[in-house]
Amino acid sequence: MADRLAELLRRFEIEAQVFHAGTLCGLNTLPAQDELGQLHLIRRGPVEVVHGNQSLNVDVPSVLLYPRPMAHRFITDAEAGADMVCANLRFEGGALNPISSALPPFLCLPLASIEGATPVLEVLFDEAFAGRCGRLAVINRLFEVVIIQILRQLMESRLVKGGMLAGLSHARLRSAIIAMHEAPERNWALEDLAGLAGMSRSGFATTFREVVGMTPGLYLQSWRIGLAQRALRMGYPLKRIVAEVGYGSEAALSRAFKAQTGVSPGQWRTSYAATQPAQRDGDSIALDAAP
Fold it and tell me: Which of 8, 137, 200, 288 is at 20 to 30 A from 146, Cα to Cα?
């Protein structure tokens, strides 16, 4: 079976940066920060997690995933506390990252439910609570492995309803979606995609729309424009991008781009550049104890 995540992670990377490892006591608040998600591993609780007026009590070792910025608060015992390891997540492209945008705003999974994660988590926690040199670099890499394992688990268990991950979870649709991801420059006909899925043309179109939430044609356009935006962020000229994302001319790409985003590629590039800071400062978020 073709790798459902390989092309996604090759084109849209996820980077983890640890900002807390240890015991967390009392009341602690994390603000939302532009373009950053968070991943928290609870080794020992309990922990009450608060989002606005909603709260969740976590009593078993668990992972908390925030793929997009969201303010949240942890409430733990003031003396015993909870053992946690926390990292900021930078999804390449921020809100435009197809993995980030395909996930729900918040996920909580017991660590024991993530297949194959136990050996990785044992090493991660061992590194996090030890004082060995280079431990932060090791933990960062292990966090990235855990993210991949979470995505695997979501697809295998079909926990995400609708969108790209739901399509990649589907036994038949996945082959067609992987093909579009791997060869966006190809002139895909509906018959070709249906053949890859082992379905009739009409059955494929109907099932795709029901599972993914859009037509195969719109999905392919969205994937191509997402790749074009990534190339624009990297500074590539439009004439180079055209062939790589499957359009016959700059005019054709510009029309599709404007239909998807509401602006031309040039306008989008200018607007995106204006929103970027001149220099990153590490994107740190501190766990601040409330007074």
Answer: 288
CA 267 to chain centre: 26
Residue type, 238: L
> Whole-angstrom Cα distance, residue 107 to residue 104?
7
What SS3 state is found at 17?
strand
Q: How far apart are the first and last CA of the chain?
A: 53
pLDDT at position 281 is 45
- For 127-178, what is each residue's pLDDT tens digit? 998 878 889 999 999 999 999 999 999 988 888 888 999 999 999 999 999 9
Residue with tokens 């240890």: 22
pLDDT tens readout for residues 202-246? 999 999 999 999 999 999 999 999 999 999 999 999 999 998 999
Structure tokens at 213: 């939430």
How do strand 288-289 and strand 54-58 relate by DSSP bridges?
A: unpaired
φ, ψ dihedrals at 87, nearest 5°? -140, 145
What tokens were used for 130?
Answer: 């030890």
The model's confidence at residue 34, banded by pLDDT at 50, 70 and 90, is confident
Q: Please report the sign of the dihedral spanned by the C-alpha atoms of residue 66, residue 145, residue 102, residue 45.
A: negative
Whole-angstrom CA distances from 36 to 33, 68, 110 are: 6, 6, 23
Both tokens of 41, joined, read 């591993």
DSSP 200-266: -HHHHHHHHHHHHSS-HHHHHHHHHHHHHHHHHHTT--HHHHHHHTT-SSHHHHHHHHHHHHSS-HH
The residues, ordered by sequence, that sit 6+ positions from 6 with a Cβ below 8 Å of its Cβ are none
Q: Which two tokens stand for residue 151?
A: 């995505």
